[in-house]
Each structure stands twice: as structure tokens, then as C-alpha cells.
Design brief:
- With 216 residues, the protein is of the alpha/beta class.
- The radius of gyration is 16 Å and the shape is globular.
- The chain is built from six helices and eleven strands.
- The chain has a single domain (3-179), classed as DHBP synthase, CATH 3.90.870.
- Strands 1-8-2-3-7-4-6-5-9-10-11 form an eleven-stranded mixed sheet, with helices on both faces.
- Its EC number is 2.7.7.87.
Length: 216
């Protein structure tokens, strides 16, 4: 049976975060608020949990799961290197609605799908998400919805779609910016915007000092 915790109330917030952390460590799924839309998450290093996440969403490994982190420094242990453009974008937009695609460290024992050696990383600007991430470490997090359905902007919307497949729902209220993150690929010779979302292409280009192309 799933349980929802109102994270706007201090007592239930702490109880919810404790339950969520225990659930993630047990290899199960949780729904958590972020600064964009609600996320469906699990331990990024638990391959079985990631497969469960994909199954609940109804999609295959051809669409790899992004990873959320709780601090800037966390990514140093997750990627092969952090290029200068990545540092500049992190300093400008993290925590916030910007996802960066980088080459992940080859030593990592994780299976996020068919990533071709890359990982998409983001640090969300939401206190509940950050507290959980700092407690349990990097989490594989996708939008909290069934494949083909709209992303949930409230915990109730997520629960209507995912129901008992998720043991713990953290309710942080309605998403303030119900806009997905902007995705920037930094694995090639030049940065490329894969999706424009919460951060505009103009803002990305201004920070990097060059006009960044948007993928077709």
C-alpha cells in the first residue's frame, strides 16, 4: 500500500523523507517534487530498481533515465571529466532547470539504459528533493507519469497515474514551474541543446559566450 506525505508540514515532511530514504535503499520507487515537474525515482546504482522504474513508466532502455544529484561536487565522481562549459553552466544554473549530458566514469557499476557511455545529470532547485538526494546519494529520476501521459505537476496527479506501483509519494505542493528542464549535450566537440525547457537557448549561449545550436 502506498503512502503520501505532506512535505509542507514539518512533522510529516521529516516522516516522509525518512520513509522515502528507507524505500530507496530497499530498491523501491518514490515520487518526489522537483522545481520542474514531479519525478519518479530510485537508487541510481540499483539496476533492478532502474528496470522497475522503466517498467512502471512503460518504456524501454532505449530512453535512458537521467540522474539527479544533491550537490555540485557529486558529479566529479560520476563523469569522466567535467569540461569547462559544464562548469560554467553548473555555476550559472544549478540548482535549477538545466540537465547536462556528459560522458560517465567507466568504472561506475550502474545501468540506466542504453546510454552509450553517457549520463544526463541535474541538480534540482527544490528543498525536499535536495534533502532526499543528500541523504541517499544520486537518484535515477524520470518524470512521474506513464509513458505517453502528461508529466505530473502535483503528487495527486502522479498517484492517479502510478497508484500502488510506488510505495511513497512526497507531496511538496504544485510544481512552481511546470516546465521540463533544458537538456544540453556536452559530449561532442561543441555544446548542443537537445531540448529547450526551463532555461532558454539565449541564456545558455550567453553563459558560454557562443551561440549554441538546438538539435533538430
Amino acid at each position: 500500500m502506498s503512502t503520501s506525505y505532506d512535505c509542507n508540514i514539518p512533522e510529516t515532511r521529516q516522516a516522509g523523507l525518512a520513509a522515502a530514504a528507507e524505500t530507496v535503499r530497499a530498491g523501491q520507487l518514490v515520487v518526489l517534487p522537483t522545481d520542474t515537474v514531479y519525478g519518479l525515482g530510485c537508487d541510481a546504482f540499483d539496476s533492478a530498481a532502474v528496470r522497475s522504474l522503466l517498467s512502471v513508466k512503460g518504456r524501454g532502455p532505449d530512453m535512458p533515465v537521467p540522474v539527479l544529484v544533491g550537490s555540485w561536487t557529486t558529479i566529479d565522481g560520476l563523469v569522466l571529466s567535467v569540461p569547462r562549459p559544464a562548469r560554467a553552466l553548473i555555476e550559472a544554473f544549478w540548482p535549477g532547470g538545466l540537465s547536462l549530458v556528459l560522458n560517465h566514469a567507466p568504472s561506475l557499476a550502474w545501468d540506466l539504459g542504453r546510454t552509450r557511455g553517457t549520463v544526463m545529470l541535474r541538480m534540482p532547485l527544490h528543498p525536499v528533493a535536495l534533502e532526499l538526494l543528500r541523504e541517499v546519494g544520486p537518484m535515477a529520476v524520470s518524470s512521474a507519469n506513464r509513458s505517453g501521459q502528461p508529466p505530473a505537476t502535483t503528487a495527486e496527479e502522479a498517484r492517479e497515474q502510478l497508484a500502488e506501483d510506488v510505495p511513497v509519494y512526497l507531496d511538496g505542493g504544485a510544481a512552481e514551474r511546470a516546465t521540463p528542464s533544458t537538456m544540453v549535450d556536452l559530449t561532442g566537440p561543441t555544446p548542443q541543446i537537445l531540448r529547450v525547457g526551463a532555461v532558454s537557448a539565449e541564456e545558455i549561449s550567453e553563459v558560454l559566450g557562443v551561440e549554441v545550436a538546438v538539435a533538430d
